[in-house]
């Protein structure tokens, strides 16, 4: 089992999107790479904590590889937008790939390089080691499953 963390705007949609992918064993939403301990949603939304809203994935690498997960990730975001996706705006909504295994960096960087060919504007998605991660509050976990009409910036056709 391997792990990777994706930031792609509001974490509700990112979680719902990856929950439907074969080989993704577990997801949870939370806050990554910020500067305080045990942040609350309100603190993260204030913009002063440095955290990104993220989805933590555990996946079976023999069923779905990191390359395929990255391809899916790039389809779900606009990597050229700084600190926003859809209607969500603020530093907590930035795009980012936070790795746990240093061996993944080469694959991630190569994927980003290949994606850049599809855009005239520069990709601003950050690629960093996961420094810290805190689970989001329970009401955020599987939010779109609990609230099917909830807002999501990821197009519904990608959720299938």
UniProtKB/TrEMBL annotation:
<dbReference type="InterPro" id="IPR002569">
    <property type="entry name" value="Met_Sox_Rdtase_MsrA_dom"/>
</dbReference>
<dbReference type="Pfam" id="PF01625">
    <property type="entry name" value="PMSR"/>
</dbReference>
<keyword id="KW-0560">Oxidoreductase</keyword>
<feature type="domain" description="Peptide methionine sulphoxide reductase MsrA">
    <location>
        <begin position="3"/>
        <end position="153"/>
    </location>
</feature>
<dbReference type="InterPro" id="IPR036509">
    <property type="entry name" value="Met_Sox_Rdtase_MsrA_sf"/>
</dbReference>
<feature type="active site">
    <location>
        <position position="10"/>
    </location>
</feature>
<comment type="similarity">
    <text>Belongs to the MsrA Met sulfoxide reductase family.</text>
</comment>
<comment type="function">
    <text>Has an important function as a repair enzyme for proteins that have been inactivated by oxidation. Catalyzes the reversible oxidation-reduction of methionine sulfoxide in proteins to methionine.</text>
</comment>
<dbReference type="GO" id="GO:0008113">
    <property type="term" value="F:peptide-methionine (S)-S-oxide reductase activity"/>
</dbReference>
<protein>
    <recommendedName>
        <fullName>Peptide methionine sulfoxide reductase MsrA</fullName>
        <ecNumber>1.8.4.11</ecNumber>
    </recommendedName>
</protein>
<dbReference type="InterPro" id="IPR050162">
    <property type="entry name" value="MsrA_MetSO_reductase"/>
</dbReference>
């Amino acid at each position: 089992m391997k792990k990777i963390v994706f930031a792609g705007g509001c974490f509700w949609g990112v979680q719902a999107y990856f929950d439907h992918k074969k080989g993704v064993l577990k997801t949870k939403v939370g806050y990554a790479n910020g500067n305080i301990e045990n942040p609350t949603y309100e603190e993260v939304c204030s913009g002063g904590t440095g955290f990104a809203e993220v989805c933590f994935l555990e996946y079976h690498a023999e069923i779905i590889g990191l390359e395929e997960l990255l391809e899916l990730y790039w389809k779900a975001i606009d990597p050229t937008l700084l600190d926003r996706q859809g209607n969500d705006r603020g530093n907590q909504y930035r795009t980012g790939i936070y790795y746990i295994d240093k061996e993944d960096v080469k694959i991630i960087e190569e994927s980003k390089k290949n994606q850049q060919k599809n855009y005239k504007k520069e990709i601003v998605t950050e690629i960093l080691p996961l420094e810290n991660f805190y689970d989001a509050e329970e009401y955020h976990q599987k939010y779109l499953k609990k609230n099917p009409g909830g807002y999501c910036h990821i197009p519904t056709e990608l959720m299938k």
